[in-house]
Amino acid sequence: MLDLIDELSPAHGAPAVAPEWEDPARYWPRLSAATGHLPAPVAVIDREALRYNAMDLLVRAGGLPIRVASKSVRVRSVLDAVLKLPGFRGILAFTLEEALWLAETHDDIMLGYPTVDRAGLARLFADEQAAQRITLMIDDLVHLDLLDSVAGPGSRPEIRVAIDVDASWRSSLLGHIGVRRSALFNAGEVAAFARKVVARPGFRLVGLQMYDAQIAGQGDDAGPDAPLIRMVQSRSRNELRERRAAIVAAVGEITPLEILNGGGTGSLEFTGSDESLSEASAGSGLLGGHLFDGYRSFRPAPASAFAFDVVRRPAIDIATVLGGGWIASGPAVASRQPRAVWPQGLHTLSREAAGEVQTPLQGPAATSLGVGDRVWFRHAKSGEPAERIESYHLVSGDEIIDELPTYRGEGKAFL
Ligand SMILES: Cc1ncc(COP(=O)(O)O)c(C=O)c1O
Question: Matching InterPro entries, A to Z (predicted)?
Answer without folding.
Answer: D-amino_acid_metab_enzyme, PLP-binding_barrel
